[in-house]
């Protein structure tokens, strides 16, 4: 649960930065948000979830 909330917050910050600094239209951001919403309800959702969990585990296993 904490991973998904932090991932959502991180992605929200990235979208805000892209809208303000890189010229991303607000309409484009809305389309991307709707795409993610519908993608989450598709058959690919478990695969994407497993991939993101694997990446998060790999990053947490890195030692600096």
Automatic annotation (TrEMBL):
The protein, known as: DUF2304 family protein
Source taxon at top rank: Bacteria
Species in which this protein is naturally found: Streptomyces hoynatensis
